[in-house]
Amino acid sequence: MLLDIENLTVQLPGAARPLLADISLTVRTGEVVGLVGESGSGKSTTAKAALRILPDEARASGRALVDGTDVLTMNGPRLREHRARTVAMVHQDPRSALNPVRRVGDFLVERLLATGQLDKRAARLRAVELLDAVGLPDPEQRIRQHPHEMSGGMLQRVVIAGALAAEPRLLLADEATSALDVTTQAEILALLRKLRAERDLGLLFITHDLHLAAAYCDRVYVMYAGRIVEEQQAGRLFTDARHPYTRGLLDCSPELGDTTRVLRPIPGKPPSLAEHFTGCPFAPRCPHAEPECESGPPELVPVEGGGTAACRRLPDLSAQPAAPAVRSTS
């Protein structure tokens, strides 16, 4: 298993509930795994655990294994080597990853020199190759440009090139396409899939867009309030979503070209870290909640047809098909 997060819990001082609660997640070599949920659900923190980029004051328990080694126990040179070579992250805003007063080539050369395998001349030649590999035209010219001279899509390609500099085995894409227009987004998604196939990478794809995750990924984990509430093969999410939260996300997601579908927003708002729950954290927003849902947090259990879900009413809900989309009659 390339990435194997086991029972990871992260607690911040003064917070009423954990930032992450008993998270378990896997990514195999060559697999694209989606991680979806509303803002604040813990998606980015889960990914950063693979690099051990957690708040200094955080207390973490459980394990975050990459190639069988627990990242949470790494220190000093071993951790720096892991961050430089084994795992790389592509963030949402490429401009935040680049120094605006330095050239793009400097960014890539520094990443390549950090591997300790190339001298400066060889690193510069390799930087040109990487820009060509991610589809930037005229890469010899691009390495001499500053970030302000490039579009957002071009900069995202530069950041991906930087992530690939050390030939990592695991790539973490944290909302890597959400700030791009639709056409550029499609190009970046195709690029990531191409690189994953060519380099046999594992890819953890973080997004708030459930439709995109279901179409792009092999498997999808759904997070809510720091917990995994469902895991399914991506193709089953539309037809056989089990958890009320997953169904709620689908019900409030627009579909391109469908002008008759009425969206049904999930009532309420996601909980903050100041809110404590004795039971299911989704219960205050759930249309199927009962008083018993407050008795304790539900555990993930296998569901018929594959996957897992965490809901005490799962047997009743599994017998019901997902609610059909409501259509306008006007």
Please write the string of helix (H) and strand (E) elements: EEEHEEHEHHHHEHEHEEHHEEEHE
Q: How are strands sequenced across the largest beta sheet?
A: 6-7-8-3-9-10-13-12
The major β-sheet equals: 8 strands, mixed
Percentage of residues in helical conformation:
25-40%
Give the assembly state of these chains: single chain
Instruction: Provide mean pLDDT, rounded.
Output: 89
Indicate the radius of gyration in whole angstroms: 21 Å
Commentary on this structure:
- This protein is of the alpha/beta class.
- The protein is 30% helix and 21% strand.
- The chain is built from 11 helices and 14 strands.
- The chain has an 8-stranded mixed beta sheet with strand order 6-7-8-3-9-10-13-12.
- Strand 1 and strand 2 form a beta hairpin.
- The longest helix has 18 residues, at 182-199.
- The chain is globular, with a radius of gyration of 21 Å.
- It starts with a strand and ends with a strand.
Topology:
Elements: E1 3-11, E2 20-27, E3 32-36, H1 43-48, E4 59-66, E5 69-70, H2 76-85, E6 87-90, H3 104-113, H4 120-133, H5 139-142, H6 152-164, E7 170-174, H7 182-199, E8 202-207, H8 210-216, E9 219-224, E10 227-233, H9 237-240, H10 244-251, E11 261-262, E12 301-302, E13 308-309, H11 314-318, E14 326-327
Parallel strand pairs: 3-8, 3-9, 6-7, 7-8
Antiparallel strand pairs: 1-2, 1-4, 4-5, 9-10, 10-13, 11-14, 12-13
